[in-house]
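batch_manifest entry 22 of 60
target: Class I SAM-dependent methyltransferase
source organism: Streptomyces cinereospinus
requested by: lab member K.T.
priority: normal
notes from requester: please return tokens only, no post-processing; we will run our own comparison against the previous entry in this batch. if the run fails, retry once and flag.
--- input ---
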Amino acid sequence: MAQHASRYGEGVFRPEDRGEDDRIDLGALAYDTVTMDRLRHLGAGPGWRCLDVGAGTGSVARRLLREAGVAEVVAADRDVRFLAAGPVPGLTPYEADVTSEAFAPGRFDLVHARFVLMHLPERERVLARLAGLLVPGGTLVVSDAVDLTTAYAPDGPYAAAMRAMWQGLRDTIGTDVTWVPRCPQLLAGAGLESVAAEIHVPPLEPGSPIGRFWAETWRRARAAMVATGLVDDAGVDAALRCLDGPGFAGLSPGMLTAWGRAAR
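--- output ---
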């Protein structure tokens, strides 16, 4: 496994840490409905065999089975402890490293990866490999974080913390979101057709799932954030208070989703 990829869970977001599954689920609450609307609009439905890469707690995989009625979802992750709580008909946990040459889960009508490539150092190679897992006419859907607001946000505790988070995660586990606007171009470069994209920015309101997600993320990434010198512990605490403050007008980073189809 590549160096940074191996440190994703070991360095900051460790699955064994108490509450990590809850943090993942807060992101799911913020984005799952948007994801499912897109996957169903692209045709996910009965008879489809699907691969969910970086499946986390399995929220998308379960909704594909329950709401879209797909035939099977192979839920792949480096650590499948959150997928093994109980058997779900049609759901197959697959513990594997997507960066490994041994990653060979089969061929699929739909391959979906959300908040995965942004953490990997060889994302273009991985993306091309995912495209190669499609059956003719199959669809690859990739979502990653895109921050189009923080760089232009007024100086203050929230903006300082968000900038420190991105830099700290890049320094420690290799997370990089600067490439994400190029994702549609990369899909086309992988030979996919009918490439398109959309961006969703969830409301950042006191008590909202996305606000609570960032709060939990900052708590786990605090050491990495402070190490950048862009913020200190008092600054992180001030930013956390901003998230719960009435009238807070900050904008959350969003999610860019891009998709394309394999030739028939």
